[in-house]
Amino acid sequence: MIRVLVADDHAAVRAGLLLILGGASDIEVIGEAADGRSAVDMALEMRPDVVLMDIRMPRLDGIAATAELNGVTDVIILTTFDQDEYVFGALRAGAAGFLLKNADADTLVQAVRLVARGDGLISPSITRRLISAFAQTRTAERPEPEGLTAREREVLECLGRGLSNAEIARKLDIAEPTAKTHVSRVLTKLGLQSRAQAAAYYAGM
């Protein structure tokens, strides 16, 4: 079972998310939080596989909460079109994915599954804007990829195209665990925290 924590300050939104996720046989919602501080505290105690995190919440916003949970659990940011500046901050904080709140039920469930198995996800509706803007802000900061092997450069290209571990494995004719290992090495060598950051990095090369 994929254990999920839902964090949103609107009760109606939380109820809708719980209803959708509750219909998936492989997902269990283990808790819900109405503010960022509660989300962090609950995540540290319950150790969910995935946290669905709203950005604008009282006590602690979703960006700060995501930063505190970096390395603890994977976070999918729930966002809207008018919150780009917050999304960029969440990307830097290590968010594993970004999803629009108007996403349909199947997309939401699939996003949780993808992130739980180590893949990343950015809603197609904001991918181009997000990667373009983030890449521009990171150009002067990021290290050059000289330290990557030829295979790792291929993996970075796959990440830039938004491919999952399984898709990378098929494209490069390698085992999926091997693809996952290469992804981890690429992120470590480039000083990146998530697949979404790798996509932004590739876009700015």
UniProtKB/TrEMBL annotation:
Stored Gene3D superfamilies: 3.40.50.2300
GO biological process: phosphorelay signal transduction system; regulation of DNA-templated transcription
Transmembrane portions of the chain: none
GO molecular function per UniProt: DNA binding
Coiled-coil region list: none
Tree of life domain: Bacteria
Signal sequence extent: none
Positions of modified residues (4-aspartylphosphate): D54
Positions of the Response regulatory domain: 3-116
InterPro entries xrefs: CheY-like_superfamily, NreC/VraR/RcsB-like_REC, Sig_transdc_resp-reg_C-effctor, Sig_transdc_resp-reg_receiver, Tscrpt_reg_LuxR_C, WalR-like
Keywords recorded for this protein, A-Z: DNA-binding, Phosphoprotein, Transcription, Transcription regulation
Domain HTH luxR-type: start-end pairs: 141-205
Protein name: DNA-binding response regulator
Species this protein is from: Acrocarpospora pleiomorpha
